[in-house]
Amino acid sequence: MFYLHAIIGNMLRIGILGGGQLGRMLLQAAANYPVITHVLENDPECPAAHLTHSFTRGDIRNFEDVYQFGKELDGLTIEIESVNVDALEKLEAEGVKIYPAPSALRIIRDKVRQKQFYKENDIPTSPFHITQNRGDLRQHDGFLPAVHKIGSGGYDGRGVQVINDTRDFEKGFDTPSVLERKVNIHKEISQIIAINRRGQTAIYPAVEMIFDPVLNQLDYQLSPAEIPQQTLWRVEAIALKVVKDLATPGIFAVELFIGKNGDVLVNETAPRVHNSGHHTIEANYSSQFDMLWRVILDYPLGNPKHILPAAMVNLIGAEGHSGEPCYEGISELLKMENAFLHLYGKQQTRPGRKMGHVTILSTDKSDLVYKAKSIKQQLHVISKQPE
């Protein structure tokens, strides 16, 4: 079969909704393919702005901005779920290819719909109740401890509150949300899977995620995850069912809990390239970004297997620092063997903001953990003028 259908002069025009670090790394991978890239984003200084063929300033949540941006393109993809799905549905009806399909986005971007989707499709997830407002929490005091997740608008740990007892009800959300039973977690896993329009899949090695308990953001991760083979098969089977039931080509990060009782439960799904897949740039034969382009351009799926085990550390803005960023410890980091630095080119830092990441490769897990923790101690993102 001849796959090089997009040649110079007849290259596909693909738009990305959002210009953050995910869009930036997607564009870096696009440089290897015959594709004309377009980005829609409000911030003209965003990380992706200077790497795309064409930049349009606009609001990805606004119907008219998204529709006008996409109507002359061959396809669109996203780097964040909070986009105008109505516009994407209209574009899809007019023949523009959307990755993932708007039908899947409608399910995933709303945590209420997402949890109902798992239940309706017999996908294991923690027991839950739907609340319409904060007052509804009082009907479920026997359900505690639980986690309250806002239906829409949550991202990167925001929009999540732990409700341990009735005194925490005031922390809950006064808008449609999900109250799900708190899982006694042994490990948190991310399983990335790509699926093309013919239903063929590429399954990456599972990733073990270690979270910052204060920011509720990924602190560092290890790949492949250290879990028993039987548990791994269960993780892969459940994640594969999620992806196939969503019925759309694209790439997905299915986040799962492994309970201390051995249960494997889906936490949530991201219908896009994901923070937990950044290590694949160096650690895997085909990165998550490369793989998504293969799906969009209808090329053969790449090889998701790892070249070497990896750890990945997020670089986040330090507390007490906002403004123009300054990176302390880069020289020491670059002395480290098989450590790869990625800065996102953001013009401003603030506490908790993702400013970059570091991937480490090694055959020795203890070496990966040691280096990940060392990087957390040595490399800091501060501002030139502290608050």
Descriptive account of the structure:
The relative contact order is 0.12. The strands form four sheets. Strands 10, 11, 12, 13, 14, 15, 16, 18 and 19 form a nine-stranded antiparallel beta sheet that branches. The protein has a five-stranded parallel beta sheet with strand order 3-2-1-4-5, sandwiched between helices. The protein has 387 residues and is of the alpha+beta class. It has helices spanning 21-30, 63-70, 85-93, 102-108, 111-120, 229-246, 280-283, 288-296, 330-333, 365-378, and strands at residues 12-17, 35-41, 54-57, 75-78, 97-99, 128-131, 146-150, 160-163, 177-181, 185-195, 201-203, 207-211, 218-223, 250-259, 264-270, 310-316, 325-328, 339-343, 354-361, 380-383. It folds into three domains: 12-99, Rossmann fold; 127-181, 2-Layer Sandwich (Dna Ligase, domain 1), CATH 3.30.1490; 185-383, 2-Layer Sandwich (D-amino Acid Aminotransferase, Chain A, domain 1), CATH 3.30.470.20. Mean pLDDT is 93; it is low at 1-8. Helix 1 crosses helix 8, helix 2 runs parallel beside helix 3 and helix 3 packs antiparallel against helix 4. The radius of gyration is 21 Å and the shape is globular. Helix 1 (21-30) links the parallel strand 1 and strand 2 (35-41). Helices cover 24% and strands 29% of the residues. The longest helix is centred in the middle third of the chain and has 18 residues, at 229-246.
